[in-house]
Amino acid sequence: MQIGFIGLGTMGLPMASTLVAAGHGVAGFDLSSTARNAFGQAGGTPTDSPADAMANAEAIVTMLPEGRHVREVLSTEFLNNLPAGRLLVDCSTIDVTTARDLAKLAQELGHGFVDAPVSGGAEGAGSGALAFMTGGEADAVARAQPLFDAMGNKTLHFGPAGAGQAAKACHNMICGITALGVCEAFALADGLGLDHDAFFDLCRNAAAQSWILENRCPVPGPAPAAPSSNGYAPGFAARLMAKDLGLAQEAAKACGQETPFGAQAARRFAAFTQESGGNLDFSAIYETVRKSR
Ligand code: NAD
User: What would the pLDDT profile of 31-42 be if each residue is shown by its tens digit?
Assistant: First the structure.
């Protein structure tokens, strides 16, 4: 399939590269020239504008930070000028309203639209092992399936447009709350003089095991591949975790469900992002948790 891929960051670059490796023709654009060059080195075709990347594409994949970026790239003007019948697959984590608005606009103009946020981190993106949470018309999801199969190993269809983003908001609320729980437990273990390696070994092999604990252990050392052991380079930037927890709070408000742990996690990551700039991995919040002793 001929694919236009917009957003070649921590996630987008390995995802687009996986599509290239699976034999798809991929034209990619990112605002960053470093990202465009890296994509060229991975065998993709970098372009000088989003319009060039999307011009001859049967399917357009977006992997951008926030809803406003997706709206900017998939603008009404751009979609109006696109020949009808294209498939738009937004893998970014964004708000449900933007996903629904874009799906409606795309449908009016004769395009398919799928919201398909992912889980699995940069590791999953690099190894084609992402999970896709999808929302949209069943035929559009079916058309996108070869792309999901190349980039991931699990696709779940949650319902109409926006349902994929709703599932992702709930999923990442668990991740944010868990991350703070893991940080607090390591801070307490530290305060009690426990050895980090031994405590990590206990937790990963006992009931406290989780993906967050194993892959985003907040203290340097026990997990050599984790961001904490590599200067807290993301991974998943704290600003993105703060954004996702904010999206979960928006969604909770919209349906009237109280989520006090989610609300607390949203406040903590928003404050950490404001203090630090939010560009380190979210597990770097550990230092602020430990300092509050
Ligand atoms: P990132 O900040 O590393 O990458 C985003 C890229 O988009 C950057 O390279 C940036 O230059 C580019 N960009 C921004 N605006 C653009 C525009 N108008 N046109 C073209 N390029 C533009 O972010 P990421 O970690 O790759 O995350 C992308 C999305 O995936 C986010 O919504 C995030 O919440 C979600 N996500 C991230 C992870 C993770 O582990 N990093 C996991 C799951 C989901």
Answer: 999 999 999 999
* Atom 44, ligand 1: residue with shortest CA distance: 118
CATH class of 2-160: alpha beta
Every domain of the chain and the residues it spans: 2-160, 166-291
Could you identify the atom of ligand 1 that is nearest to the CA of residue 73? 18
pLDDT for 80: 87
- Provide the pLDDT for residue 292: 61
Point out the ligand 1 atom lying closest to the alpha carbon of residue 122.
Answer: 40
* Structural fold of domain 166-291: N-(1-d-carboxylethyl)-l-norvaline Dehydrogenase; domain 2 (1.10.1040)
HEC string for the chain: CEEEEECCCCCHHHHHHHHHHCCCEEEEECCCHHHHHHHHHCCCEECCCHHHHHCCCCEEEECCCCHHHHHHHCCHHHHHHCCCCCEEEECCCCCHHHHHHHHHHHHHCCCEEEECCEECHHHHHHCCCEEEEEECCHHHHHHHHHHHHHHEEEEEEEECCCHHHHHHHHHHHHHHHHHHHHHHHHHHHHHCCCCHHHHHHHHHCCCCCCHHHHHCCCCCCCCCCCHHHHCCCCCCEHHHHHHHHHHHHHHHHHHCCCCHHHHHHHHHHHHHHHHHCCCCEHHHHHHHHHHCC
